[in-house]
Structure formats: C-alpha cells, structure tokens
Amino acid sequence: MLIPVTISLLISTIFLNFGLALNGSFLPSARIEPARAGAVLGAVESPIASKLIVDQGSNLNQAIVKVITEAKSLPRPQLWQLPQLDQPLRQSPKDEEKKPEPIIIDFDFLAKNGVILADDNNLFFAERPDRAWPIASITKLFTAYTFLDYNPGWETSYEIKPEDKRAGGKIYLFTGDKVTVKDLFYFMLVGSDNTATAALVQATGLSEAEFVEKMNTKIKELGFKNTRLVDPAGLKDGNISTAREVALFARIALAQEEISRASLIKIHEFRTAQGRKKTIASTNALLSNFPDQGISILGGKTGHINSSGYCLVSQFKNYAGRSIVIVILGADSDSSRFDLTRELVGLYYNRQP
C-alpha cells in the first residue's frame, strides 16, 4: 500500500513545482544558485501546518525520502477479504478408509451393552459397543481357547484337590474325585462349573497365575486392546472386555470344533474313576429354542456376577449361510438376556435375505 501513496505524493510535488513556476511563485532568478552536477529542485517541509512547498535549494532525493516517511505515517486502509481466504486448503487423504457405522435401528434394548456382529465383522446393531464391562463366566471361552495349546490329553486323569474348589454356583465335583480332562472341559463350558475350570488349569501343569498370563498374551496377539483377564473362571470384577471384542473373539473361539461342540451340549453326564455319576445341565437356555425357522445356533456362553449383570454371547447361522454373533452384557435378569437375544436374531434375519 505504500508504493501507490508514494507515487501519488511525488506526482503532486512535481505538478506543484510546475504550477508555482507558471504563476511566478519562484524567487527571482538572480537569487538562484547554480545547481550542482546531478542536483535538481526538490521540496522541503514548511513550518506552516505540515504543508509541502517548493524550495529551489533543496534536493529532490531528500524530498522523496520525506514523502516516503510521511506516507508511512498515514493509516493503512483495511482491505476486504474473502472468508477463509487465509486458511490452507484441506485435501482428503486418498487412501483413508471409512469405517462402516452400525445401522441405526429403532429397538428398545434392555441391557447395558450389546451388539450384532455380522459375518463381515461389521456391526449391524450396537449399544455402547466399546464400553469396558465385566464379562463374568464368558471368560471361560478365553480359558478354553488358551487351554487347547496346553492340553495334556483329553483322557488324562486328574484328581480334584482342595485348592481347586471355587465358590459360586452349585458344587458338582469334590476333593478326591478322579475325572478326565475332557470331562473337566465339558463341565466348564456346559454348566459353567468354576471348580472344574480351576482343575482344568491345574491339569496343564501351569499355575493359575501363569495360565492367566498366557491368556492375556493370546489376547494381545489377537489384537484386542480393551480386554484383560485376572482369573480363568470369571469370578472377579477385573475380567473386562467390550461387547465388540467379546463378539469378535467368540467368532474365533467357536471356530474351534472342541469349543463349539462342548458349548452345544444340553446335558453332560459321566462317571468318575470311583464310579460316582455326575450330571450337569447347560446354562444356555437358547439351546432349547434353536434350530428355528432355518436358523441354527453354533454355540455360546453365559456369564453372571453382581457387577456384570446377566451376560450372554451366542453365534447363529441361517439357511443361506449368513452368520452373526450377538452379545448381551448387563441384562437385568437371567431370562431377559435370552429374550433379548431371540429378538435380535429375528431383527437381523428378518431384514436379511
């Protein structure tokens, strides 16, 4: 902005010189001193009201400097700018992948957290899918999955010890009972027996602490960042996961034939080495509801402690081969987790071919 102002003042000064010369305002020529080589008439500041007058004895170069100095002191006009003109242009990354969002469904979900995980691993339905929550005996799916790496043999005999006893639920196994590893595995997944779970861990030759460490290592290897486990049976509040990660893991675990088969048994019976008959019924009431209308259940696991509420993870497949995993965490009653799951099964398959 200084350049136009400066040029304007210079032009005004030149015309002022010519104007004064034509009107006879210069001093008589006899009083004008000969100009030095290269010197020209200029302008100096008059003591009167900051006006510029022509002085034949001043140097034009000095005048120019004064004009520029005067111009700098003038206020600068504010130029109008287009909005956002000073902002850098934003370009969307070419390779950025947009994560699919859950389909919005008007559904009265009566639990704390839950999801429907479709067979492409995207969420068809979600209610607080990434909130950390105690998972109770759903932990036993993680225990079963880890156990397969340390299985001493399905027919290996194990004698129940006093330290294997765990509170919570009905007691089926007692100190001194000699059972096979397979029966311990089935008791854990069918009837969610806590003593059987502790005994199964001991049968691997690892301490409980060592086994839990192996479980958490597996979790990290699978890429689950919001799951951590502190005991194999799920009796403690510290066994934490999310509805999304429970669903993703259940799909992995139930792909193991031994786990899927055990979780689908309604009643498991056997005799100990001493001849005592042991019978345990499944905690999963959905086994009595499916298959239904071309939809089969592929397995699942229940869970409940006070802090978790009633929990359930289940996998289903319809006649067209489309599979889903449904997770319910924090239902308020034993029956509501099963009712909710049945409703979500219908919600999904009634919308899908």
Automatic annotation (TrEMBL):
* Annotated source species: Candidatus Falkowbacteria bacterium RIFCSPHIGHO2_02_FULL_42_9
Q: Does the keyword Hydrolase apply?
A: yes
For binding substrate, which residues are annotated in this chain's numbering?
A: 301
Q: Name one Pfam family in it.
A: Peptidase_S11
Q: Which family does it belong to?
A: Belongs to the peptidase S11 family.
Q: What is this protein called?
A: Peptidase S11 D-alanyl-D-alanine carboxypeptidase A N-terminal domain-containing protein
* List of catalytic residues: 137, 140, 192
Domain Peptidase S11 D-alanyl-D-alanine carboxypeptidase A N-terminal, chain residue ranges per copy: 121-332
Q: Does the keyword Zinc apply?
A: no
Q: Which GO terms describe its molecular function?
A: serine-type D-Ala-D-Ala carboxypeptidase activity
Q: Which GO biological process categories is it annotated with? A: cell wall organization; peptidoglycan biosynthetic process; proteolysis; regulation of cell shape
Tell me the keywords, alphabetical order.
Cell shape, Cell wall biogenesis/degradation, Hydrolase, Peptidoglycan synthesis, Signal
